[in-house]
Amino acid sequence: MGNCCERVGNFFCRQKNTNVRVSLPAVCFVWQIAMIVLFGVFIRYDEESDTHWIEHRKDHNITSDIENDFYFRYPSFQDVHVMIFVGFGFLMTFLKRYSFGGVGFNFLVAAFGLQWALLMQGWFHTLDHTTGKIYIGVESLINADFCCAGSLIAYGALLGKVSPVQLLVVTLFGVTLFAVEEYIILSLLHCRDAGGSMVIHAFGGYYGLAISWVLYRPNLHQSKRLNGSVYHSDVFAMIGTLFLWMFWPSFNSAITDHGDGQHRAAINTYLALASSVLTTVAISSMSKKGGKVDMVHIQNATLAGGVAMGTAAEFMITPYGSLIVGFCCGIISTFGYLFITPFLEKYLKLQDTCGVHNLHALPGMLGGFIGAIVAAAATESVYGHEGLINTFDFEGSFADRSVGTQGGFQAAGCCVAIAFGLVGGAIVGFILRFPIWGDPADDNCFDDEVYWEVPEDEETIPPVLEYNNHMIHKHQDISESNFSVEQS
Amino acid sequence: MGNCCERVGNFFCRQKNTNVRVSLPAVCFVWQIAMIVLFGVFIRYDEESDTHWIEHRKDHNITSDIENDFYFRYPSFQDVHVMIFVGFGFLMTFLKRYSFGGVGFNFLVAAFGLQWALLMQGWFHTLDHTTGKIYIGVESLINADFCCAGSLIAYGALLGKVSPVQLLVVTLFGVTLFAVEEYIILSLLHCRDAGGSMVIHAFGGYYGLAISWVLYRPNLHQSKRLNGSVYHSDVFAMIGTLFLWMFWPSFNSAITDHGDGQHRAAINTYLALASSVLTTVAISSMSKKGGKVDMVHIQNATLAGGVAMGTAAEFMITPYGSLIVGFCCGIISTFGYLFITPFLEKYLKLQDTCGVHNLHALPGMLGGFIGAIVAAAATESVYGHEGLINTFDFEGSFADRSVGTQGGFQAAGCCVAIAFGLVGGAIVGFILRFPIWGDPADDNCFDDEVYWEVPEDEETIPPVLEYNNHMIHKHQDISESNFSVEQS
Amino acid sequence: MGNCCERVGNFFCRQKNTNVRVSLPAVCFVWQIAMIVLFGVFIRYDEESDTHWIEHRKDHNITSDIENDFYFRYPSFQDVHVMIFVGFGFLMTFLKRYSFGGVGFNFLVAAFGLQWALLMQGWFHTLDHTTGKIYIGVESLINADFCCAGSLIAYGALLGKVSPVQLLVVTLFGVTLFAVEEYIILSLLHCRDAGGSMVIHAFGGYYGLAISWVLYRPNLHQSKRLNGSVYHSDVFAMIGTLFLWMFWPSFNSAITDHGDGQHRAAINTYLALASSVLTTVAISSMSKKGGKVDMVHIQNATLAGGVAMGTAAEFMITPYGSLIVGFCCGIISTFGYLFITPFLEKYLKLQDTCGVHNLHALPGMLGGFIGAIVAAAATESVYGHEGLINTFDFEGSFADRSVGTQGGFQAAGCCVAIAFGLVGGAIVGFILRFPIWGDPADDNCFDDEVYWEVPEDEETIPPVLEYNNHMIHKHQDISESNFSVEQS
């Protein structure tokens, strides 16, 4: 099989050059060196991760080390970290011959993006204008992971159709756009979006869809044989799904207010996710002959509840409110996989490999508007006087903002996120159409052979070779001596 | 294979209808809507997850947000959450063609059960009779996960032989029975059982065994070809085993007393588990020709130490006491797989797919009695005066209970758990025998084809090639009709 | 296939006896019983895990349970625990037919080693000479896990070439040597090495390499067919890689100072790891035709940054300093896989299955020297007066040590670790050459069939049967009816 695939590979190299031997290392090196320089100029430890913490504590009469923000946020950070690398990574291993690309490029993109994210978010949010430095702590690491999530979501739409170099470009612009829209939404519009329904999921989803739309491949059907799962690749994908599902309460509570804020966000997300699972299974089973459940739905739509709670999780949405959100989003997301994705591909010429539209773009947008409604419905009797101020951070120049106004700004924020995703994605898409990025040919997509050293595998016999002497090929895989067979 | 299996499927549909296209969605929707209504009526945030926490803290002069129960329990909660969804889920992926059902239905059952658990446990334990509300926090989420564990253990005994609809029925009754027996054991008998040797493992194990006994399939051997593992499915199962093994200290310490209680429970469980691994390997190797180790034992019996420490982990059982418990339970559990499971199947007509008897029922029962002995042996010199009161919660109406009496009640509690499991399971089993649940035929068990859309695998040759000679043979692999070979 | 392999097995038994049916259980039982006795004599709960904690708190006027060390360290402990069992375990599943041995024996070795580690480290570090007891808490558990890591690293070099009994011997001596060198380095030389670049990685790496060098197999090429990966085994290995990569910040911060110490160590490690990923991908891609990335590099070299930060992570190395460390180590480690490992095998007769030289030995040694340099460069202006004392623990008899001296001692410590690894490994290697350990024959390495009950697998066709009609035998594998075939 190996050598057969090599042949296939070389054959297409004639039309399309997928060689990234120069470009990929070049981008990685240049980028990493730039990061080192910029970190040297700008990034320092914040006071809670600096040895001066001891003095710091004295100044702020903090009683104990345990009040270091590290102990409030580190467990949630590690859960988010697992979601980014194992969750997103393994969710994208479902393709039969693109598991290396799914988990491996996800790894590369996230490690690449989080460094740039620390800088971009630092410049916009935590730059100390007196010293000109960015001071980072555990919360910065969480935000950097969040920032990467946007680009990883976009990767979901492009999975199998782009080169690693293109992915790095997607991430470079993705992180930059993210930091800008986040600044506008959280700082200028003063929206609340702790779990990032708007800034992460709506933005990332539409960003990826716009890119994919510009990169439309009319002959992608030529790779149809590889655009599907095998039994074990679906089980691998479940690893991703479950770690995303389990840790989503940490995702939505990671950067909310200490104490009741984190506590409430975790509870709300936990409930919404549970509710999504039941409605996803229900719709999936209804849609298929014999009521068979479809792994694609289980792997994705079960997570919609977590996406949709990204904004509202820290509000007093009530436990049953969370269940309702999960209930609806599980249904909508599964319908998306059944009807919207095929529709988009057929009529809008939009190829969305992982269906990020149904898992991120749509539920993220809904989450944004749900957040707006819940915010507008907030009352002092429910939140308490101090509670209302803390929850919506009605302080400083926003002290006199009403919950109604807040709701309006939340809705506006959601539109900003979508606009950034669509416009930014379109522009990046056009950049990616230059013929310099080493992207694969239409009949060579969804194939790890293009960018990875793939081991020869007993398990796969290319159907093309079946009709003629099966023995030789089959045989080669294992004993690698053809003589005995050819003799027989 | 696809269409061949379809044929097989359709063929049995004549005798046995495995179509759940109406029943599964119906149950999911009705259930989820009921949950939303009941949550609306009963469930509210507790004071530590409510925005009023700020006022609350003033009242209780709590010095810092870090004393919110969230920071005491959330890391343990996430570990428990991983055990329920990844641990139990992947442990059940070991069957060669039932991995989707193992991890997927586990996912469905747990998400379904935890909502009902929040209500049932709330009504029995935390219902505020003045307001008529149940106030939930992170500890409620942990207890809900625990409550699901009982039903998931039962699923282990039924794996591959029941329909998803039957599983939901098992869970509905399982959670209800769990809440009742838990109330009797923990509240009425005032037992201590933080890690649930009795209330979770003994109950869940015997519940599943009783159901399986009632649902005995005399012709299950017809599915023998699928009732086993393949190389990679065993590796998947190790993911489940290891996450259960690693996080069991969190499981047993998740709801114990703050401070030394959680600390001690984690240490004891860690030691018992380590000791189980060695004795499991020893017995497994002794039992096989050439001293080969059996994956079934490694995947299961290594966990017996954690199960058996469920009750005693928070007591002063001493580190070497923990090692002894793990030592014995590793041996007993492995012997169970070698001798008891075959015995049960042959003479008691009890088919236990995952051997939950050896991993949960038996070690859980032992754990209950170990807890009783350790409790009865407690002295003030070891625990200290305050320590003894805190550990056994000798307060209020139980202030004058002696440790001897406590030991007696612990033993009684264990019997209650077993009785609930056996009787409840028998009843549920009979309910599941109605021919309306869409369970698979005897020669169609352990097969994902029945309830899942299964991708066509390279491992199974694409139907297009059926015409040539090779295919016929290949085809036999599945259909097992040897005629053509004998003719050739 | 089963019976064929049996035949193969029996065949080699004539020359080489791989039967461990007596030795493996004997070692496990004797060892576990010894542990129980020794724990009974020496090990007790420390004051924070003892019920006396309540009184204890009063004495030390600690305000809250949250200040129990459990809450400072337990989340990091669980992350470390995952690295030891899932991280190391799954990283070693990459071989096509040795995944059981990789994850299973890793499990056995770690469970075996951590008990001995608690005793050895206790005797050297925490033995209370008045009571003659060792008092353990969560930090002891972390240290025990660390101690096992040394032996697991050594296993990486021996993977597939040794029997489980030999592994237990490797671990027994490995843990003992570890405790001694750790005592010399941390206590006598008063080095700082929180993440164990020196005491864990340099020691463990060279220990394994020395053993492997003594156990050189000139005819190992006879097992060449099995010394490689298949597609899905590489995906399994990525589970190990990612959990190691994600949780390495917890590894390096698990036992550092409360507060800013843990906070800073996590940040530094996070950054170094991110930087390693980019340079690893760059070098890997440069080295291959068409710029294809090699899974071996991604699975291993991406972790080099974490190894190299083991010593310096808790120092004020600065964020960009961390990036530089990761940058260099990613390059060096990948070059190691490309050139050093083949060189070692060809000219030094050193067979290093997992390339631990490139992932642990070399980066660990570098990490030790990096730590020495960073320590020597420490200034009071950067660390603050108190900070400097806390970070390097300049108290008691070391109160007047200068940072320059400290740097010198750090470098000396690194040499001690390497010396212990090389000398200890050589001795243990010679012990393992006695023909009593049941190690596999040269043409039987990397094969789970030798020590595991392996399920019959549709996926593999035994080469022995290739010469005659493949089909019929293929057929046997499943239908297990040989008569029809023998007739034909």
UniProtKB/TrEMBL annotation, chains A, B, C:
Topology within the bilayer: Multi-pass membrane protein
Domain of life of the source: Eukaryota
Assembly and interaction partners: Homotrimer.
Family label: Belongs to the ammonium transporter (TC 2.A.49) family. Rh subfamily.
Protein name: Ammonium transporter Rh type C 2 FRhcg2 Rhesus blood group family type C glycoprotein 2
Pfam families: Ammonium_transp
Cellular location(s): Cell membrane
Domain Ammonium transporter AmtB-like residues, every copy: 70-433
InterPro entries, sorted: Ammonium/urea_transptr, NH4_transpt_AmtB-like_dom, RhesusRHD
Source organism per UniProt: Larimichthys crocea
